[in-house]
Amino acid sequence: MLQSIQHFIQKGMQSVSPCLLCSIDRQQHHSLCNDCWEQLPWFKQVVDRHEHSISCAFHYDFPIDRIIQSYKYEQQLHYQNLLAQSLLSLRLARVQAIVPMPISVERLKDRGYNQMLLVAHMMAKQLRIPVWQPVIRQVQHAQKGLSRLERLENIEQQFIIDPTEKRRFRKVLIIDDVVTTGSSIHALSTLLHQLHCTQVYAACIAAAQP
Ligand SMILES: [Zn+2]
């Protein structure tokens, strides 16, 4: 009963709240109006990076680039529903758990939240599967001035298996915000295979040029 009332209130709010992008029309699609939703830089294709096929919802273009930036760095958390729904609109394989791209404790302290963990929780709720974080990320050093190989090594060293996480899943979905070279997905995926995952899928909100 309480849930249906909450649902009703939420629906009601959506229909009267203005679109998050244009502030003119009312929200119809996950916080956006019809026009703004349709005009997003939809991509909905798979990109191949580091021998991984990564499903991507958008091109990393306006206004998705701004949305991701403000969601990530300016606490504009009201975009999380839009971002979660964009990933859910992809043809995703059936998996047993969602693995959000981890961020280091330092970044977490600075930012106050892991933006992809929030999106993962929203997706997990709808898909009725757990969020799984068996890998932790150590200090993220700046990548500037490093060669391609040094960057790869640098990223791989950042990820370590969390010995306190005892749950195991075989088929999982990694989610991240922007894929560029795909090296962090590659590093995370390598450790997931070490944890006996047999199928590791990946989906990103937006694909940028490598
Ligand atoms: Zn709009």
Automatic annotation (TrEMBL):
MF (Gene Ontology): glycosyltransferase activity
Phosphoribosyltransferase domain segment(s): 120-207
Annotated keywords: Glycosyltransferase, Transferase
Domain of life: Bacteria
Pfam family, one: Pribosyltran
Record bears the keyword Nucleotide-binding: no
CDD domains (alphabetical): PRTases_typeI
Matching PANTHER family: DNA UTILIZATION PROTEIN YHGH
Family: Belongs to the ComF/GntX family.
Protein name (database record): Amidophosphoribosyltransferase
Species of provenance: Acinetobacter amyesii
